[in-house]
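Operator note (shift B, R.M.): manual run for NAD(+)--protein-arginine ADP-ribosyltransferase requested after the automated queue skipped it. Running by hand, logging everything below so the morning shift can see what happened. Input copied straight from the record, untouched. If output looks odd, do not overwrite the archive copy; leave it for review.
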Amino acid sequence: MSEAIKTDTSLLKNLQSVSVEHGKDASVRLKDGKFKYGQASNFLKNILHGSRYQTEREDAATKLNIRKNDVSVSAATSILKEKVKNENEELQVLKQSLRLDETKLTHLQDKKYEIGDKLENIAKNEFNAVKAKEKAKSTIEVFSAIYQNKEGCKALISESRVQSGYQTTASDLNGKKIISECKKIHGDDIFSRGNNALKFSILTGASDIPELVKKAEKAFYTPTDKNIVTYRGQGMTEKGISTLIQQFDMNKENNKESIYKSGQFFSTSRDHNLAREYADNSQDKVKVMFKVKGNSSTALSVPGGLSFHSNKNESLYSPLAHFKVTGIATTSGIYNITLEEVAGMNNAPLLPY
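Run finished. Output pasted below as returned.
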């Protein structure tokens, strides 16, 4: 467009020159892309080149889209000025459109960078999530390998109770005893069959039970939107059951509910009969069966063929889990307590034991 304006502006200058010399009513011709005076300068030229001059006058008219054999300076000037005006207006429209397109392009580039940043963050988050999942899996496996051992379970439970404020001291644990029990049950070569790294992880975990418990309470806390029902049999102190019943009855009268924090690793089983055995075999005077409806428990996962038990259907709740009591009844000397998992809350009291 700018080239067309430049060309037409140059033609206007040609016309101005012709007008100065020959007047605005003089005819013009088009030669070599320029407007010139339309008549021959003398009689001889008119005889020799009259035909060419006529053709060039017609070319001038054609150039300006005029259906005549010739065109005057004034007519040509008027047409070209209007044409240049229209071309300038069109150029301004194009420039405005270009500016808008450039603005849109800048916006799209910004969006591109924004989306790129978001995709990069998503990729980082996915990478971190995978890493976190791998770490959680490793923590669960080490915890499970230690937890299935009697001394290991005692140490882990007591440490979780210390960290929750149930008690002040935790049991000691010698990691070598865990390794020895694994060898006793599965054979001396169990750690030479691809489990050497696991042996090191067990020893490392057993050497720092407080840190393992901190990691495990997060790894085992996996809330979902699907509840499952499991059972737990245990003994309980008379003070603990009395506190629980009194609070439950009070809440029932006042149409309230109390939220309790489990405060320790809370082992449950899908097998009701197995849980009942634990209640029956308890040395405590008060025997309790918990029916637990919850969604954050995680199954124990002992890797490398090191599992001691294959049919406990055990599902472990983290110390981070919170429950409300929805029912308490007594059958055949056993307290049947129904727990329902709820969202966590700050400063929730510990579940009485």
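Quick read of the result: Residues 73-147 form the longest helix (75 residues). The chain is about 55% helix and 15% strand.
Leaving this for review. - R.M.
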